[in-house]
């Protein structure tokens, strides 16, 4: 018995799979597909342009491709376009920042090539893929790596500082400061750096200490040899710097930051 579809008996034409509908495939593609003429103007878009860029295809036909790109990306794409026409492109891939119809930016990865008809170069064609999510993921990973690097550096500095403090504390007291004095110096330095980071002066720290003791503006003014009005303004500025709405909140914030150290 002979099998259909062999060299002896080929498949009937009716049994052959239909040829692919390339036009339907292009229109159904999720990626943006385009063609450009030799002037760099769009001559074709598939329907994905409306999803990716927010433009109906008809609105961009005949427009130069640089219209939808940021200035920097327009330079990148133009350079690639010129190299492609000259047959000197190094890679078919490049990335651009495209401007959506609503003004927002979308990152596109483009794969471009020459458009040849009857052996003649008539323009360029390409596929552009929306890589916004990929860029966001890359940025998130880079940010996490940066934070981890910073944390490792801070840990290294802290460990170095603690090692130095321990060495100073256990040194022969005749050769340097006593351990308690070393610790007080370290605490003073840390407090000063933290205060400067929050825009607070040594006088501000003194005022915070008196606030923590429950002194009124008048009592603080007498202690600090300033007018009550001046003290009131200073306290308002301190509260603003610490993001506090009440005096008690300012004291609590200062304690949390290690700005207040009560002597025994």
UniProtKB/TrEMBL annotation:
This is Transcriptional regulator, LuxR family. It comes from the Bacteria. GO terms for molecular function: DNA binding. Transmembrane segments: none annotated. The lineage of its organism: Bacteria, Pseudomonadati, Pseudomonadota, Betaproteobacteria, Burkholderiales. Residues 18-88 form the PAS domain. It holds the Pfam family PAS. Residues 92-143 form the PAC domain. Keywords: DNA-binding, Transcription, Transcription regulation. InterPro entries: PAS, PAS-assoc_C, PAS-like_dom_sf, PAS_fold, Sig_transdc_resp-reg_C-effctor, Tscrpt_reg_LuxR_C, WH-like_DNA-bd_sf. GO terms for biological process: regulation of DNA-templated transcription. Residues 193-258 form the HTH luxR-type domain.
